[in-house]
Write a structure and sequence with these properties.
Mean pLDDT: 88
CATH topology: ABC transporter involved in vitamin B12 uptake, BtuC
CATH class: Mainly Alpha
Oligomer: single chain
Structural class: mainly alpha
Number of domains: 1
Length: 332
């Protein structure tokens, strides 16, 4: 008597539907870019693409910083890894850099160290709140973000501070091999983070903690230490982003953290689109930042009101989060 084994088709359909869900936000953004390009061909001119790369650089770096937190904490938007304070941390570092160079008359090198030190303090606070005390990341970093926003107002008295350091002017205005210096610096940070996450034992353990904390704990990994270290590392990257933010805005402008927060969340959660394993990666955040910058630039060149630009980004964030939630539900 023989038994017949029947292979069912639903898994293939499920795989295809999960892929469609994963790609849908990027397809939406690309579709809009195509429409805008047909309407405004200048949106893909060499000058427009160069401007988009310049705009993408600081967004890519802050998005990569958030990707580190998500990799270790998990990609659930509510209970997973999240650091809402990274945008305000980067803004505070930019304010310290601009104030130190322009108003306090320190060297650029000392001012950058001060900016990074300020960011590291915020990272340590988040590490203690989340890994030490046990607060949920979304609540802890939201509270920290409000605190840092207050510190920014104290440091800057809510006024713009120009930044005209030769180093900043070079990052802002110069090209190397046809590419803006800013995007080259962002690519160098990407190179370091990609090596760390994907080609070192530390990176392997980071991904293990993010994939399954209980299994990582059973395997002998100190989960809390990796979570804490990730918040500090992400803050360090945010502090370095002060150079690119200061170059893009030629200084510090009040409210830059609000705009940066929207872009940061968008590129970090859009990054799985560029990953074969549908996971958040620094490379995915880098590429997502370029996609979002090209889209934003195309909307501006098409003379779309700025409020609509941010409105569409909000819709895109919602689409990314919903697609991710539905994909996880189908995977169960």
């Amino acid at each position: 008597m023989s038994a017949t084994v029947t292979l069912s088709a639903p898994p293939a359909r499920t795989s295809r539907s999960a892929l469609a869900l994963r790609l849908s936000p990027a397809v939406l953004a690309l579709g809009l870019i195509v429409v805008l390009t047909i309407r405004t061909p200048a949106a893909i001119s060499p000058a427009a693409l160069e401007a988009a790369l310049t705009q993408a650089a600081p967004i890519a770096v802050i998005g990569m910083a958030l990707s580190l937190v998500i990799i270790v904490g998990g990609d659930d938007a509510v209970s997973g890894g999240i650091d809402l304070s990274l945008a305000t941390t980067a803004a505070l570092s930019t304010a310290l850099l601009a104030k130190s160079v322009t108003d306090w008359h320190h060297s650029f090198e000392f001012s950058l160290l001060l900016a990074v030190a300020g960011a590291l303090v915020i990272g340590v606070i988040n590490a203690v709140l989340v890994a030490g005390i046990g607060l949920t990341p979304i609540l802890a970093t939201l509270a920290t973000s409000v605190m840092v926003a207050g510190a920014i107002r104290v440091v800057t008295t809510n006024r713009r501070t120009d930044l005209a350091s030769p180093a900043i002017i070079t990052v802002r205005d110069q090209n190397i091999a046809g590419l803006p210096v800013s995007i080259i610096l962002a690519a160098l940070i990407l190179f370091v983070l990609h090596l760390l996450v994907h080609h070192t034992p530390i990176g392997m353990r980071m991904r293990a903690v993010g994939g399954n904390r209980e299994a990582a704990h059973v395997a002998g990994l100190h989960v809390g230490a990796y979570v804490a270290a990730t918040f500090v590392l992400a803050a360090l990257v945010a502090g370095l982003d002060s150079v690119l933010l200061g170059a893009r805005a030629s200084g510090f402008s009040p409210g830059m953290e609000d705009r940066l927060l929207v872009d940061m969340v968008l590129v970090a959660y859009l990054s799985p689109v560029f990953s074969p394993r549908n996971t958040v990666t620094p490379l995915g955040a880098f590429l997502s930042a370029i996609l979002v910058a090209v889209l934003s630039n195309a909307l501006i060149l098409a003379r779309v009101d700025n409020s609509w630009v941010y409105g569409f980004k909000g819709v895109l964030i919602l689409a990314v989060v919903v697609a991710s939630a539905l994909a996880r539900r189908r995977a169960r």
